[in-house]
Design goal:
Blueprint (H helix, E strand, L loop, with lengths): L25 H4 L8 E3 L7 H5 L5 E4 L2 E2 L3 H14 L16 E3 L2 H4 L1 H7 L2 H11 L3 E3 L3 H4 E5 L9 E4 L5 E6 L11 E4 L3 H8 L16 E3 L7 E5 L6 E3 L10 E8 L11 H4 L7 H23 L6 H11 L1 H14 L1
Antiparallel strand pairs: 1-2, 3-11, 4-6, 5-13, 6-13, 7-12, 8-11, 8-13, 9-10, 9-12
Length: 332
């Protein structure tokens, strides 16, 4: 099992760090309760081969309590304070989101400590059935989505995530806004994309068959659900009237070395405009390669043939090689 990648000690200049924050305390700020239901990838129609290649059999959970009242109050205040430092790129299409923050851990020590909290990580690791850590790419380690000012826009259109695991936490009382439902497609990613005519993270406003669409009941502010986001086709609907609707989305990676792919869409993320994203992705690929090289050191037989040695070495650094080539292509 690999060790979690440390959060960078520096931050990109555009991220404004909050001052005078409270100190995160898991005993005070968390109120973790188990979800009543979980749905597996098999129930979504994924094949045995697809499931074997995934980090977890989990597709999605029902909503469960995450923040205590005290923790919710702090996160609501911090989300309001960070709103003026939102990411510059807005709108649907190349960027689906109307109003959002990525890299919230750069701005807030409280948020960073929450996402790295051992109690939280142990809890969600049990739900996923695999050891999890805060995502190794800080831009996606925690995001915050706000409702767009133009309510004709969806909060977020149909898509899958660029990360394997995330929690969607509602910070706003659901009784204070109309519309804005979080919905997911009960089926595989490829089936949803085929039905709607869209692929990947780009998003689309087209509609899926209503009988296959499920709406999440958050229950209350401070509650959320967990999903294998790169496997679940989902969206957040438009509001029916102007209102606040804020969600917090921390993301996670598996620490299990035996997983064939960690589920992070590096190719897609490399085209994002987030400050420092290319270096963050380089750190992510180097972290994965380091783990694979350690396996080569520990497990490569002394009797291995030159062809076997070459194959294992190339496999260990394939992610680095692919990402390096991608960067050079983007420079042209």
């Amino acid at each position: 099992m690999r060790h979690a990648l440390n959060f960078p000690t520096a931050k990109p200049d555009p991220y404004l760090r909050l001052q005078n924050e409270p100190v995160f305390n898991a005993d005070k700020h968390l109120a973790l309760t188990l979800p009543q239901n979980t749905t597996s990838l098999a129930e979504f129609g994924y094949s045995d081969a697809d499931i074997a290649a995934s980090a977890s059999t989990l597709a999605i959970t029902s909503s469960f309590r995450i923040f205590s009242d005290a923790g919710l109050a702090v996160m609501q205040e911090l989300a309001a304070r960070m709103k003026s430092n939102r990411n510059e790129s807005v709108g649907t299409g190349a960027n689906r989101l109307g109003s959002y923050i990525r890299g919230a851990g750069y701005r807030s020590q409280f948020v960073r400590d929450f996402c790295q909290c051992p109690q939280l990580l142990e809890f969600i690791s049990k739900l996923a059935g695999t050891p999890l850590a805060q995502h190794s790419v800080p831009a996606v380690a925690c995001g915050i989505n706000y409702a767009p000012e133009d309510i004709t826009r969806a909060v977020d259109t149909w898509h899958v995530d660029s990360v394997p695991f995330d929690i969607v936490i509602l910070l706003t009382d659901p009784n204070t806004f109309r519309g804005g439902e979080f919905q997911y497609f009960h089926g595989t990613r490829s089936e949803g994309e085929s039905l709607i005519g869209s692929t990947g993270e780009g998003g689309t406003l087209n509609e899926l068959p209503a009988e296959r669409v499920h709406t999440v009941d958050f229950g209350a502010a401070g509650c959320g659900f967990m999903q294998q986001g790169n496997k679940v086709f989902h969206r957040a609907c438009r509001l029916l009237a102007p209102a606040d609707r804020i969600t917090m989305i921390p993301s996670f990676v598996t620490l299990a070395s035996e997983v064939a792919t960690d589920g992070t869409n590096v190719r897609s993320m490399s085209g994002w405009t987030d400050p420092g994203i290319q270096t963050e992705l380089a750190r992510h690929e180097a972290w994965l390669a380091q783990d694979k090289l350690n396996q080569v050191i520990a497990e490569l037989p002394l009797s291995a043939t030159p062809a076997e040695i070459s194959q294992q070495l190339q496999a260990a650094v394939q992610g680095i090689s692919d990402y390096s080539s991608l960067l050079l292509q983007q420079e042209k």
